[in-house]
Design a protein that fits this description.
alpha+beta
Length: 227
């Protein structure tokens, strides 16, 4: 049984990770972004954490907002994980933004972290990914302000002013340090964590939620270590 659980959790790498896709130079969007409005409705958010604080399992995602594979994970896999495991209070999510794909990644990461100070990081990330699914815009202050302004309850101007705050810098540095400790080399990178156990890495085999969901279910069935 232990071997079977390990196999489910250590899924063979079947899709690429983002490293350096380069920059696109297309015209900025002019319309309001739509879609995913109710995706996080009713789920507690606290900075980089989404879900019931007492949930027994934590799913940590290392991501870069400029990464197309991170975008696909966020739009194709994450919604099912939210419904099956986060809304049922089995799992809480932690978002770790690495921002290693150039200056545009850094711009987007700082804005996401600043919006997260208003407890709406996951909504911002979702809207940003939906925008990237439609087109590959140049990342500008105007664009980031526009995306933030679409998130209900967010003071976009306040977020803009807090992008270079010590709190934002500390959050991004903490993500880099944790990624280094876990030997993360590409994104998206996913880890299951339960108190008293070592983090367990999940490697995506496809853009289907089923392997991730099965790994979570198996992880929940495993006995906790003594002590």
């Amino acid at each position: 049984m232990a071997r079977r659980g390990a196999l489910l959790a250590a899924l063979l790498l079947g899709i690429s990770a983002c490293h350096d896709p380069g920059e696109a130079t297309v015209q900025e969007p002019t319309g309001a972004l739509t879609g995913g409005i109710d995706l996080y409705s009713g789920i507690p958010q606290d900075g980089i954490v989404l879900g019931e604080p007492s949930a027994p399992i934590t799913l940590v995602e290392f991501s870069d907002l400029r990464c197309s594979h991170c975008r696909d994970y966020g739009l194709e896999i994450l919604p099912a994980i939210l419904e099956r495991h986060v809304r049922t209070k089995q799992v809480k999510l932690v978002f770790r933004n690495l921002a290693f794909l150039g200056s545009s990644s850094v711009q987007a990461a700082r804005m996401a972290a600043a919006v997260g100070m208003q407890d709406r990081l996951f909504d911002f990330v979702d809207r940003f990914f939906r925008l990237q699914a439609r087109e590959r815009p140049v990342i500008t202050d105007e664009l980031l302000l526009r995306v933030a302004s679409e998130v209900p309850g967010v003071d976009a101007e306040q977020a803009m002013a807090q992008r270079d705050s010590p709190e934002v810098a500390q959050q991004l540095e903490a993500a880099r340090a944790e990624a280094a400790a876990l030997q993360v080399r590409g994104v998206p990178a996913l880890f299951l964590i339960r108190e008293g156990q070592e983090p367990r890495r999940l490697r995506l085999t496809s853009m289907s939620p089923e392997p991730i969901s099965r790994a979570i279910e198996q992880f929940m069935l495993e006995p906790r270590p003594p002590g």
